[in-house]
């Protein structure tokens, strides 16, 4: 491990080959974490836009009504829900509970994430 | 560190839930219009909620960033520098976020 380059270390934690549910859950947790940190910075940028006044805000709202942003919203909602639901799973396992159920808990968390993402995107599309 | 990540994560589940419900279901028109956003943020309870939410989300996010970087097996010296940088980044982001929200609200 110590002889690995930084890129090899980065690749090692996103390389899903040979991993089981716990490893895949960990990779997804890391990727969604990075995505959510980027979103936090974008959210603060949006707040800056809001402080510029009504014209800037209306322009921003017009921009995010583009279908691309519906897709981006879907990715964001998936990432947020997965990170939150799998975070509960990690917390439960971290407290020493349900370690024998960690694989079904992963698939349960993943299925719940997909169901809630579909429901949320359907709600967004229906509101318009 | 794990326990603080878990505590802030649990707090975020509550705060994010309240943040989403307040913004998208309680506020009229779901904050689509500028005047609604200003009225929403000018409510002192909402301003306090958003301030606490911002502090907790920044703490959770930056502890997560450190955890990810620690996976790359950095030296103790680099970790010390990383902690200092993340504290500065966190404080700057928090002050900036509260300042901008205050500018909009008041």
Counted by DSSP, the helix tally of chain A is: 5
Judging by the overall fold, what is the CATH architecture of chain A?
Up-down Bundle
Largest interface in this structure: A-B, 29 and 28 residues
Which CATH architecture of chain B?
Up-down Bundle
- Total number of β-strand segments of chain A? 0
**Helix share of residues of chain B?**
over 70%
CATH class call of chain B: Mainly Alpha
Structure description:
The complex is a heterodimer of chains A (128) and B (106). Chain A has 128 residues and is mainly alpha-helical. Chain A contains five helices and no strands. Chain A has helices at residues 6-14, 21-51, 54-64, 67-94, 102-127. The radius of gyration of chain A is 18 Å and the shape is globular. Chain B has 106 residues and is mainly alpha-helical. Helices cover 86% and strands 0% of the residues of chain B. Chain B is built from four helices and no strands. Chain A binds chain B through residues 1-2, 6, 9-10, 13, 30, 33-34, 36-37, 40, 44, 47-48, 50-51, 53-54, 57-58, 61, 80, 84, 87-88, 91, 94, 127, and chain B through 2, 6, 9-10, 12-13, 16, 30, 32, 34-35, 37, 57-58, 61, 64-65, 68, 71-73, 93, 96-97, 100-101, 103-104.
Fill in the keyword field for this structure:
heterodimer; A: 128 residues; mainly alpha; 3 helical TM bundles of succinate and fumarate reductases; 5 helices; 82% helix; globular; B: 106 residues; 4 helices; 86% helix; 0% strand; elongated
